[in-house]
Amino acid sequence: MIVFKKASDLKKHLEAIGKKHNKIGFAPTMGALHQGHLSLLAESKKATGITVCSIFVNPTQFNDPRDFQKYPITIEKDIYLLEKNDVDILFLPSVPEIYPNGTTNLEHYNLGYLENILEGQYRPGHFQGVCQVMRRLLEIVEPDHLFMGQKDYQQCMVVKKLLEIMESKIIFHHSPTLREDDGLAMSSRNVRLNEEERKNAIAIFKALTFIQKNIHTGSLMNNITEAKNILLKSDFKIDYVEIANAETLQILQQWDGKQNLVALVAAFQGQVRLIDNMLLRES
Q: Active-site residue 21, yes or no?
């Protein structure tokens, strides 16, 4: 594996190895890698000739500076995992490398309603930051295929919207959420949970599973109420529990039995904010 810290060096290398004749797969990450990330990279290796992983903790997508400061950094372990899994290239830029003119007065993207619901409502400015960093990374790497995980369901939709705005031909792949044996979605933030919080955290999976098993046409509110109760019993502080159209993310209170649905949760266990989702009906 080759590590690049400068965008110019990475671009020169990709040109030298003939990127026009080798499909490039790209998985952007913020580090603290786990099996979920590695599964994305494995998909890239199957589908493309060159696999690039980036590790960059993007300051512009953190609306809470404390959250940015506490984000887990495990770079030595991450490099070991990437080398062990035969990743071709790691892009490890600094903040000035990505934002040479600073992180203020950056461009704004028209994301429509996606920016103001769910994560957008509770993390104002978050998705602008996601788009700002993703556009820069995509313009540096110039991948043919982009790999991201379903756990960040709304973020996947935002990035697809960004690709439309960019009029990009990049093929987007979103992969199913990988879970621990007890159902907890794999996340870099899980390492911040203490022993008791880690035990409590599986209530998110239980709440989503309850919704999935009890979904029916008509009102969805009883399912949402019971899911919230499951979380509250495990000492979660809830931001939201919602059921939405899986294609549009329109939040629903009634179901006609035809639309594909996704249940989405965001809640705090102690000081750690966890998100998860589960598809309820697939086409």
A: no
Same domain, 194 and 147: no
Choose the catalytic residue: 13, 34, 37, 108: 37
The Cα 151–Cα 266 span in angstroms is: 11
Contact in structure between 269 and 263 (CB atoms under 8 Å): no
Q: Are residues 151 and 195 in the same domain?
A: no
Integer Cα distance of 88 and 101 in angstroms:
30
Contact between residue 257 and residue 265 where contact means Cβ atoms under 8 Å apart = no
Task: Look up the domain containing 35 and give its range.
Answer: 2-175
Q: What share of the chain is helix, strand, coil (3-state, %, to 5)?
A: 45, 20, 35
Its pTM stands at 0.94
Burial zone of 112 (CB within 10 Å; 0-12 exposed, 13-18 middle, 19+ buried): exposed
**How confident is the model over 185-214, as pLDDT tens digits?**
999 999 999 999 999 999 999 999 999 999
For residue 247, report the phi and psi dihedrals to the nearest 5 degrees: -90, -35
